[in-house]
Amino acid sequence: MSTPVISARETDVLALLGEHLSNAEIAARLFISVRTVESHVSSLLRKLEVPDRRALSRRAPGPARAEQERPAPALPVPGLPAPLTAFVGRTRERGRLAEAVTERRLVTAVGLGGVGKTRLALAVAAQVAGDFADGVWFVDLVPVTDPGRVGAAVAAAMGVGEQPGRGIDDVVVAALADRQALLVLDNCEQVRDGVAPFLERLLVACPGIRVLATSRARLMVPFEWVFPVPPLSRVGGGESEAVALFLERAAAVGRTPAPAERDQVAALCERLDGMALAIELAAARWSTLGLDGLTAGLSDQLRILAGGPRADGRHRSVRAVLDWSHDLLEPQDRALLRRVSAFVAPFTAEAAAEVAGFAPLESAAVADGLGRLAEQSLLAVTPSDTGTRYQALETLRQYGTERLADAGELDDVRSRHLAWCLAGAACLQEGGGPDWRARFDAVAEDLRAALTWAAGRPEQHADACRLALSMAGLAFTRNLLGEAQQRYEQAASLASGADAAAALRQAAGVAGCRRLGDDMYRLHRAAAEAARRAGDAAGAARDLAAAATAAYRFSSTFISPVPPVDEVTGLLAAARELTGDDDPAAEAALALAEAAVVADAFGAVQGAPDNTAPDTVACAERAVGLARLAGDPVARSAALDALSGAQSWAGESFAAAAAARARIDILTSAPSTPARTHELIDALAMAAATAIGAGELPAARQWGRQLADQPPLAEVGDHATSWLLVADAFAGRADEVLTSSVRFLDAWEQAGRQRSFSLGPAAASVAMIHGLRGDHEARATWLTITDRAGSKEDHQHGHGAVFDAMVLLHHGDAHAALERVAPEPEQVWKWVCWVWLHWYAALRAEAAVLAGHPDARGRVATARAVVAGNPVATALVDRAEALLGGDLPRLLTAAAAFEAAGCRYQWARTLLLAGGEHTAAGASGLAALGLAPMAVR
User: Is the pTM value of this prediction over 0.70?
Assistant: First the structure.
């Protein structure tokens, strides 16, 4: 066997394994997803032939281990935000809460705003992070205004993307199903209606997950254990935890209280009920007001708010300090504090100037004002890749919002915030660059909050619609496909007539990228209704035809049962009635729908069995011609897909491949839209598949690689790698197949073990490689996966017959191989005509020759007529005929043809079949590919 090749990225992962980092920590270091880390770890385990991570860590490069042995400075815990100030006190609470988190499924730290829940949760999470093999994730729910987006916030924190055909909550649950990790959800109270059902589902499905939540009230979920967070202890007077916090924060602003003042500081902390936020705000004024000033100022506020139960008193103490801190500000700084409360996420000085910079506050004075507010601990300063940003603690932001309403500025400031969001969204739509993603992420929550506010006010619906459309496009670019579809549908609900129809068509395009045939069908029908209401008969006809096409073309992506045939033919009839003679686009859409529904060009699940190939080809060719006249590249691609399918059914493999390649050429220069992206993904898959069918393995690998690199498929490695696996398997690239199979299997299991016409062949190709390696146990495992990932009929009569025959021939069992491909191609046409026809015919001929079948020569002649023009299949037939006649020169010519076609496995096999002096080269070739020795008759 050859020395395993370790990629550069795998080397990086191995080095960090030597530092004994978790998968989450490695992902954070390398800026890749946890799933990608897992794929690399699995690949390393296989390549280095070691049993576990500990053994891998011992194989890490020496310098990494040396680094591990040296004492290292304390580093931030991956997955947790780095605190800007030291954590003080709470020794008892930290111990109890840490114990609870490691023993219980869900712990909710409950307490008043300002008591210190978040800092306590962060300290405890950092303390116990090492107890969780997959690390810890922190999810800040402050910016989340929609309860339905709790799962999306968790996914963003984890670095988990969306998967076609699944909601984001499903993806998160699947990603955490086998993890041992801690999830910290901060500030749950404002979206408690979303947190509760999300956690209930998560905790049932993910036994290794522990959750630490912070909230002002319990979540009322099963498994919940409530941990009341008390104020800081004042026991011990000047030596208490409350005083320690005051001293630490006062020192940070320039002057530490003298030892003689500690008792007075203790009295002040007692007056503030030990509330952490109140103590920190008071300490921020220490250097300017001193103890007398603080005591006098706070006494007035506390006296005004005195009375009531003790818990209310604690809340009043925070309110008193907020009012007092607010009243000490200059009028311009008061205005700034209340106006920046419109931001739900960290913001820049420039953003604050646009939103808050109006009388009595000048825009030019905003930056200085932010600095003064930060000095008084009323804002936090957070450096980021997109510049210095400011943020108010949630308690302070809510206080600012109250002051904004009291000042009568709430609608004005929210409107200015909306305008800023619209401008920011427009800027993001126009620009790109390497920092685009970071810039989008920095403002996304504010865009969502502004959209929620505007959508709830009829007078703002026009701007809300604009922002929804912008947000949809941005979310699509960011690969947040579920949100993109949601925003397009939201835009449609805020618009009317033709605008609503246009938004619904965009939503249907996104649904296509998500492999949601049901939604495509529903949205095109809704678009037709919107167009009809707008008086656009041609548009309604196009959408009705598109819905009918989707029902047949994408029938395998329907989650619910496909629409009844009568329903779809009814849509087709309605589209005919609405289509005029002067609208090429409507005529093209109708022609495509007829090719799909009437002629079954796409081989739909519900397609009629009695369509003839010539009629289907003719119908598809008509659709192609009309689409060309319409001038719509997406419509042309769809029509060519119908033609490619019809040509496959007719056995015209090369024409089918040419039509699939033409789709890519057309779409490459087309405007970027969701529908175009959906078409391109489909076109790349079809180009790869038909290239395999035509024996063009290098081209198949090219299209397969492009397919695997498509952003919408980033989280669906099974679909992304499917045809690349098949192409590599036919070429005998065992190492590449086994490496890609890790991503394939992981994604397939995470996606809920879906079935698809492409997933079955991909799994079968991995099984074949294991068979060629002589690992029959692994092959059996992958054959089981094959039956679950695809159609059993396809495996029995189509791709499975081809792959099984190759394995049997490799191990010298020609008679079993002959039995596996016993039916005439016409008998299994439905399963072999698309991709496998040439391979099936050629291997059938070779098996006949090697098994000594009496009609071997006739089968060779029949196969030659079928495969003419296919370089690999022709070489297979040439080899079979050379073996039949004992023609060594012709065998060597076939070997050269295999090598030229990029099929190294068949090249090595041919040399072994040639025997003699060529045996050593053939054996060496198989070993280089990582395959087992071949049995030769």
Answer: yes
